[in-house]
Amino acid sequence: MYGNAYIDPNDPKNKLIAGEDPAKLQAFEETILAGKKIEPQDWMPVNYRKQLVRMIEQHAHSEIIGALPEGTWITRAPGFRRKLALMAKVQDEVGHAQLLYAAAETLGKSREDMINDLISGKSKYSNVFNYPAKTWADSAVIAWLIDAGAIVNQLANSKGSYGPYCRALERICYEESFHLKYGHDNVVHLATGTKKQRAMVQDALNRWWPPIMHFFGPSDKESVHTEILMRWKVKMASNDDMRQQFLDMYVPKIWDLGLTLPDKKLRKNPETKKWMYTEPDWDEFKRVINGDGPCNAERLAVRRMAEQRGRWVRKAIVNPKDSYVKPFA
Ligand code: FAQ
Fold first, then answer.
1. What is the pTM for the complete model shown?
2. Given CB 3.0 to 4.6 Å as the disulfide criterion, which of 240, 242, 247, 326 pairs with 275?
3. Model confidence over 129-184: pLDDT tens digits?
4. What residue ranges define each of the domains in the chain, with the CATH number in brackets?
5. Residue of 225, 226, 239 to mutate, ligand 1, most atoms within 8 A of C-beta
């Protein structure tokens, strides 16, 4: 629809930029085309701001909700060394949410509004965190492969156009690469362990594979926002390109461990160099991202409880006179 040429905000076909000042819009697009960053005080189209808030907010929510499935394994981690590592990882994920909420706040939406939109179910967060982490192997698969998928996405987008988001992503990527090594170590340990450990990690992989395929978003044909986000360099790769990059990097590593993937069609086409796969169940994806996955209600209930229990602390910080407020009131 837009390509790289100048777009006219007065053309009724260009709904996403309707009403924008043509000269400002052109200067904005030239800045982006030149590879320069947009900063919070700079002029930006209404829709650029809206898209960034939507995406960064969803990303921040994904990090705090994402801490929950693995978090449930802290008390049951096999051994003190792994418990310490998992605690540090979960703490990092919550820290990523802090960085991302701060980046979204630069665009004018308050943290309180973002949290309210999360716990009321208005805002989305990543599909993958609506599935249960049934065994220790699930936590290993999440730390290896979900973190790997997140790195593919975040490394690309850290080269994008909005300064505060890119700087947050750069720092997040450094930490995620530790998570990935930790997750890989756990998976290798299980895959090369006893028969029972091997079966456990294979079972986890079988269950997590479809959500991982969903993780990169709908196919480019179905994606709603990719075109404008790529034009404005918020997204630096399309959903299908990120999925392909992930498959390219991780399927061979999974197969090297003697593990299998639950998709008979999965192979790399030697001519196109693209991976062929069975389309995951996109109806399930839609159900899960719209609130009807196996753990959506449980995840939001935990966040609601945290919001309620922390209310008196936030009140006391803003107004120390309120510090006598009874906890859980
Ligand atoms: N889950 O038009 P598109 C992590 C929605 S961080 C849920 O293609 P877009 C770290 C999408 O929002 C993981 N919803 O959308 C960690 C839209 O709905 P809307 C999170 C999804 O934005 C690891 C609709 O479908 N990462 O894992 C998903 O162009 C381990 C149409 O889709 C980010 O958020 C999905 N997977 O592309 C933590 C990165 N995919 O808003 C703990 C930033 C699509 O119109 C443990 N976000 N939807 O109602 C992005 O790069 C993009 O937003 C995409 C989606 C690529 C996720």
1. 0.95
2. 247
3. 999 999 999 999 999 999 999 999 999 999 999 999 999 999 999 999 999 999 99
4. 37-313 (1.20.1260.10)
5. 225
